[in-house]
Design goal:
alpha+beta, five-stranded antiparallel β-sheet, four-stranded mixed β-sheet, 4 helices, 24% helix, globular
Length: 193
């Protein structure tokens, strides 16, 4: 299923926004140098914030517990020095999981053939949500084979997208050429006070 990946910087990506984008800008160079791509950075919560970082290895898209711990230590060191988040937070580092978010344009080519869900910022033909088989990309648009037929959705106008958990996706994640930990790794959690 997954093939060797291009770094996220080689194409369009929607991996973070707001304060999370500031954090991503701080940590991305170090993680790239360590051999990891950022899939998503998300800052959420009320009184106690949660900083979630999803990452994967450049080489195979995998991410095991040791990888999560390595990324967590590197990110914690950077954030301790830079201190971009003013209040206490919990740092969580994890794999994207099998029904992963699709945050980079290259993800849609990488997972072509699998089922996906896409939500647009604004309606297209009266709809904001689309589901169907991913057919890859055409320029800067994502192509889906929906019930109504093939549709091209502009990546820049997407709010979010993800793979749909299907038997086919589960079977592909267990393929002998794919490390067993790649889609199902446990995350590492670190506290920041």
């Amino acid at each position: 299923m997954p093939q060797a990946l291009e770094p996220a910087s080689s194409g369009l990506a929607k991996t973070s926004e707001g304060k999370a984008a500031e954090v991503e800008a701080l940590i991305a160079p170090a993680l790239q140098a360590m051999g990891y791509d950022i899939v998503r950075v998300l800052l959420s919560g009320g009184e106690r914030l949660r900083l979630q970082i999803m990452a994967e290895r450049h080489t195979d898209g995998g991410m095991n517990v040791d990888d999560c711990a390595e990324v967590s230590r590197a990110v914690a060191a950077i954030l301790d020095v830079e201190d971009p988040i003013e209040s206490a937070y919990t740092l969580e580092v994890s794999s994207p999981g099998i029904d992963r978010p699709l945050t980079r344009l290259v993800d849609f080519d990488r997972f072509a053939g699998f089922e996906g869900r896409v939500e647009m910022v604004n309606p297209i033909d009266g709809r904001r949500r689309f589901s169907g088989r991913l057919l890859g990309t055409r320029g800067e648009s994502v192509v889906l084979d929906c019930e109504e037929g093939e549709i091209a959705l502009p990546f820049a106008a997407m709010q979010k997208a993800k793979l749909v958990l299907t038997d086919e996706l589960i079977a592909a994640s267990r393929h002998p050429d794919v490390p067993a930990e790649s889609p199902l790794a446990e995350g590492a959690v670190a506290e920041k006070n």
